[in-house]
Amino acid sequence: MNINLSEQIEIIKSQINIIDVIGYFERLKKRGRFYNCKCPLHGEHTPSFIVTPAKGIFKCYGCGMGGDAIKFLQLHLKIDFMGAMKWLANFYHLPLDETTSTTRNYSRPLPPNKQIQTAPALPVSYIPKEVFNATLSHYNSNNLVKFLHTLFEPCIVNMLIKKYCIGTSKYYPGGCIFWQVDELGNIRSGKIMPYSPATGKRDRAAIPVSNWVHSVLKMDPFNLQQCLYGQHLISEDTSKPIAIVESEKTAIIASVFFPQFIWIATGSKGYEMFNKKGELNEVPDLLRAKFKVLAGRKVVLFPDLGALEDWQHLAGELSDITSIEVNDLLQTAAKEYQLPDKSDLCDYLTSEAARRELIDEFKQALIINPDDSDARQWQIWEQFRDKGLRSKDRLQGCNELIADKGFYVAG
């Protein structure tokens, strides 16, 4: 008996196992009822791609894409519905009437990097201002803000909250929102992330590991086109070079210690020089598009430990856009202070070793200044406070000066 095309498609659909399909391209790790991996649809450093086999669906909380196995194939291989069905028919060794399917030849599963005609670009979606404004409060319950208060004086924390558009979310207990605002003031979306208020580290036990405001609010359809975190700051002072790190938190904290830069973040590593086969990767179009806004500016990259070579190659690949340097401050500090693998600049800046250096600089500034008046000493203290020196650090440094040198210190 002949089976028509619709019946063939239904038979193929009945055989689909989403773990089989996505597992063909990516190594999935089981996490309870879920599976996860780094998203194959966009470059990222931390796995945020979740597969739910019981429902036969996937969701990436990094780029916002989601759907069933057919949708995954359409997005990943950039093919239409019938192209995905032909792929599945070959994968499961099932018949499909080729005369009514796509004209392309899909005799075997396509490799992940196969370039096929893309769909027309959709207009960029934005978050309404009222949604953004509603999150700019309740900082006493925001775990990232609590951590910032362990590092800096309240006036510095308040400045950072406003400068970097930090919001608060109930999605996670003590959740933080990093709002992505472009240079025109458009709110692209907000990344929601969980942190420990004591250590400032991400809560990697959370499921999902991060999410997006537009996904939580079910703002469908929503065409997310990310920008650099802190991109709204780049026009504030065009004479300043742009410093780029992976982590939003690191950009915020580094801006206090190194105010000679405008600090922004990619939100993820975004690029690895070699794929699993040892072949050289091209720079993703999405990452290249992010950097185009920096054309004509001096840019300095501060890679995490283990990412120096990747970002050096990235700098070379993007040199047609602007002048890009790669700073190895962290790699040098790692040798001296024995920082653990995969540390980033924030780990160094918030370490006891870095804190000790700042206190010593403060003490030296007091010693070499011949004016020991209270007003002058308080002026020096305010300068170092703006560099991240806390009141208790000032007190520690002053007590050490009094004990070691009998130095007069303003009360």
**Tally of domains:** 4
CATH class annotation of the largest domain: Alpha Beta
Radius of gyration: 25 Å
Helix content: 25-40%
Strand order of the largest sheet: 1-2-3-4-5
- Number of helical segments with 4 or more residues: 16
Low-pLDDT ranges: 100-108, 114-119
- Under the CATH scheme, which architecture of the largest domain would be assigned? 3-Layer(aba) Sandwich
Overall pLDDT metric: 84
Query: What would you call the structural class?
Result: alpha+beta
Distance between the termini: 96 Å
Shape verdict: elongated
**Number of extended strands:** 13
CATH topology of the largest domain: Dna Topoisomerase Vi A Subunit, Chain: A, domain 2
Percent of sequence in beta strands = 5-15%
Task: Write the element-wise H/E pattern from the N-terminal end onward.
Answer: HHEEEEEHHHHHEEEEHEHEHEHEHHHHH
What would you say this structure looks like, in words?
The protein is of the alpha+beta class. It folds into four domains: 5-100, Alpha-Beta Complex (DNA Primase, Chain A); 122-227, no CATH class; 230-344, Dna Topoisomerase Vi A Subunit, Chain: A, domain 2, CATH 3.40.1360; 352-405. Helices cover 37% and strands 12% of the residues. The protein is built from 16 helices and 13 strands. The strands form three sheets. It has a five-stranded antiparallel β-sheet, with helices on one face. Strands 6-7-8-9 form a four-stranded antiparallel β-sheet. It is elongated and about 100 Å long.
